[in-house]
Design brief:
Number of helices: 7
Number of domains: 2
Helix content: 25-40%
Pfam families: Fapy_DNA_glyco, H2TH
CATH topology of the largest domain: N-terminal domain of MutM-like DNA repair proteins
Organism: Wenxinia saemankumensis
Keywords: DNA damage, DNA repair, DNA-binding, Glycosidase, Hydrolase, Lyase, Metal-binding, Multifunctional enzyme, Zinc, Zinc-finger
Distance between the termini: 27 Å
Structural class: alpha+beta
Low-confidence stretches: none
Bound molecules: zinc ion
Family: Belongs to the FPG family.
Shape: elongated
Largest sheet: 4 strands, antiparallel
Mean pLDDT: 96
CATH architecture of the largest domain: Alpha-Beta Barrel
Strand order of the largest sheet: 1-6-7-5
GO molecular function, one term: oxidized purine nucleobase lesion DNA N-glycosylase activity
CATH class of the largest domain: Alpha Beta
Strand content: 15-25%
Radius of gyration: 20 Å
Oligomer: single chain
CATH superfamily of the largest domain: MutM-like, N-terminal
């Protein structure tokens, strides 16, 4: 499921390939049960250009200084693809396509249909209305400790809570705690200031590491948990055994041999 670095990689593709081109039309694929802009909502975008792209947490914003904007949420398996009509094949599962003048196209590909596109006046008010916490790449040390440290929730659940901190999901919360040496079910309010600072530092390092590869997981170092997410796999850090357990309703992969605390 796409998290902050995956959303950022998609935003970069739009910034590089689909900005400053006049929108001539929109094309819709098979969109039953999907939340996408209506014809009336699409109309104000015709003849305009995407001149700015932004991202907050897992949300991607495409628009212009004066607005309006479209917000894309990738859901479980969505992605944004830039392609050229005639030269490239249309991506499969293309649900919503920006048709630019000339051959350039931008398609929202969404095989499992959990993603969506909405219209908003501006990204700031969307973030506020959705009650999202600060972006996980932007938040400072003190704000991180304040927002997560007081919680009785398991540290993994606190990291996943988009209202505390926006952008971290199942995969990268596990990777963060694996590197921090903390069990996923340690209550957040049981962590010392130094432990919370370490969680923040490792979360940033994980997100930065994934961003550096543009979310191509094969390019991540071999000792990352992502390459060993299997019950019974060997832990590349300590030789222990990777184990899974359910924390806050989510499957958490971890190594009980070098991750401490919890029950
Ligand atoms: Zn280990």
């Amino acid at each position: 499921m796409p998290e902050l670095p995956e959303a950022e990689a998609n935003r970069r593709r739009v910034a590089e390939g689909a900005c400053n081109r006049t929108i001539r039309d929109f094309a819709l694929g098979e969109i039953r049960h999907m939340d996408l802009p209506s014809e009336a909502e699409r109309a104000p975008f015709l003849g305009t250009r995407i001149t700015e792209t932004r991202r907050h947490g897992k949300y991607i914003f495409l628009g212009s200084k004066s607005g309006p904007w479209m917000v894309v949420h990738l859901g479980m398996s969505g992605s944004l693809r830039v392609w050229d009509d005639g030269a490239d094949e249309e991506p499969d599962h293309a649900k919503f396509t920006w048709v630019f003048e000339g051959d350039r196209r931008l398609s929202f590909r969404c095989p499992r249909k959990f993603g969506w596109v909405k219209v908003t006046e501006d990204p700031g008010s969307f973030v506020e209305e959705a009650g999202l916490g600060p972006d996980a790449m932007e938040i400072g040390d003190n704000a991180f400790a304040d927002r997560l440290g007081g919680s009785k929730q398991a540290i993994k659940s606190a990291l996943l809570d988009q209202k505390k901190l926006a952008g971290i999901g199942n995969l990268w919360s596990d990777e963060t705690l694996y590197r921090s040496g903390l069990m996923p079910d340690v209550p957040a309010n049981a962590l010392s200031a130094a432990q919370l600072a370490a969680v923040h530092r490792e979360a940033r390092a994980v997100l930065e590491g994934v961003l550096k590869t543009n979310a191509r997981y094969d390019d991540l170092p071999g000792d990352w948990l992502i390459h060993h997410r299997e019950d019974g796999a060997d832990c590349p850090r300590c030789g222990g055994t990777i184990t899974k357990k359910t924390v806050g309703g989510r499957t958490a992969y971890h190594c009980p041999d070098h991750q401490e605390g919890g029950g």
